[in-house]
Amino acid sequence: MxxxxxxxPAQKPRLAFFQWNHFPNLGASSFLAxxxxxxxxxxxxxxxxxxxxxxxxxxxxxxxxxxxxxxFEAGYRSHGSRRxxxxxxxxxxxxxxxxxxxxDPWCDRRSGFLADMEAWGIDTYFTxxxxxxxxxxxIADRTFVWPNFFDPAMFRDHGLQKVIPVxxxxxxxxxxxxxxxxxxxxxxxxxxxxxxxxxxxxxxARRMLAGESYARxxxxxxxxxxxxxxGHELVRKHLEIPACASLLIAERTPALEAAGFADDISCVFAxxxxxLDRLDALFADEDHLxxxxxxxxxxxxxxxxxQQRSQIREWYDLNRMLKAGQRIRQPGPFAPLCIVEAAGWRxxxxxxxxxxxxxxxxxxxxxxxxxDSAGARDALQTALDYVPYLPEAHLGLALCDLVEGHPEAxxxxxxxxxETTLVDYGAxxxxxVEWALYLVALLAAGRGPEAxxxxxxxxxxxxxxxxxxxxxxxxxxGKARPEAPRGAGRPASIxxxxxxxxxxxxxxxxxxxxxxxxxALTPKRLAAAHASGLWLRGLDRVMRRTGVxxxxxxxxxxxxxxxxxxxxxxxxxxARGLDGLRKLRAALRSLAAGGPxxxxxxxxxxxRRL
Length: 610
Hints:
Blueprint: E1 2-5, E2 14-18, H1 30-43, E3 48-52, E4 56-57, H2 58-65, E5 69-74, E6 86-87, E7 97-101, H3 110-120, E8 125-127, H4 132-135, E9 143-145, E10 164-168, H5 177-189, E11 192-194, H6 211-219, E12 221-226, H7 236-243, E13 247-250, H8 254-258, E14 268-269, H9 275-284, H10 286-303, H11 311-321, E15 326-329, E16 338-341, H12 356-369, H13 373-386, H14 391-403, H15 407-425, H16 432-444, H17 448-454, H18 464-476, H19 502-515, H20 534-546, H21 560-593
Helix pairs in contact: 7-10, 12-13, 12-14, 13-14, 14-15, 14-16, 15-16, 16-17, 16-18
């Protein structure tokens, strides 16, 4: 479906915006769909926007719309929204293409985003997260920030009487450590409006305050606290609170200071144990409280509405002016883009937020370098306490497993991360470093023939870590491969890895094999290949000829047969037929449970998956 927002016939460039289908969120967390609508509304101020939110052929879209610029959204994590399948993206090379990472900087869908960008031939990206370049440094020089903003038509001073001392609105679980502590303190000492924290994908989330009702609740409150998660991000709530003429109480971070906020001038920066005293003092001096609130209100309406988020239009205009030897640079997340000489390129002026998970990962890396895998595990667990699905922490634990001689523990960890990208997200290729380490773990587990059989599973995937292990497996198989990287491109990874020579890598690999009780890396090891996984690989080869082969590797750590069944169903029934099959399965589950389907109850047999 295409949804066009037509502007008056002015000199606006035509933008084809390939946006995920976010409409399913209207039945649960409607504010998520509202955010996506605001993205379109913002872009429509600078472009003539046509939204494409269904599977499509890029060449046909370009023939029909003749766009001046194409923007591709990817990397979203919501369980309700649907990712697009877009064919023929190599067509119309004269149309500039940009990727839009619409997700958290720490999200486990970042590998899927990178895979989509590689598949679609896109090498320049925008992101809504000021911390994204820090979290994914491999693409920092190709990433521009399109920071969060608000719609001033909705978030404004509605002129309501201040009847709520403090509004505690939004999530406050372990991803928000500052907010957790502050909410707990203020709720015990002040009358507060407290909203329940629904899961976004839950049907109960429709009860959340959203849109204008949320804006009016903020406007009726004297103050409201917010933090930018453990990642020290700039979130919408940082802008929406002062936009509605409520006092913003926040954790001091580089992102907020870069946005222009100043303590006791346009907001209150406070540590959790200071918040109560600071708020007591302000309620005792109402004139000063109103003064700070008015300053914060002016700041965000002057600098952070959708009218000030012209970065994508700036890129488009500057890109048309670029000459040989020049690049487009973003001096800061809220600064205008500019053209600089490539010879003096110093990178973008991205922020370093020093997120708590990043600090934990840095500690873990230092401990691993000092051969303290037990200490590294503790640091990695600290990172997972903030974000249980953090992919860098899970890869770190897999490395701990390997150096401790337990490859059988590393394999399922790595397989789950790879499945997240291939199945949960739907990308065509996994993260290159995760895949490389999975092959290493297979070898260390004594499953060398499987590693050899799978080494070319993703022929277009290339990375120094993957190139090293593939050449090592080639030698084991008695083959030779050129030193040059495999494939046409070198896809980025979300996992920073140390640069190593071939000799240094082989020394490291032999050390892992020795700890796992495996012989040194020699061709004699594979003189007699065992049959582990042989039947599954045979089935995989047959399925390749039918065109229904799953993207998952045929190995026992992956749910290969389950995905194969789904692929066959899609092939035979089509998407609509598959929906009917799901409904039939739900009906059968209901009958097996003895009546209409009920909410799942832990341990209730009637609600097990068929």
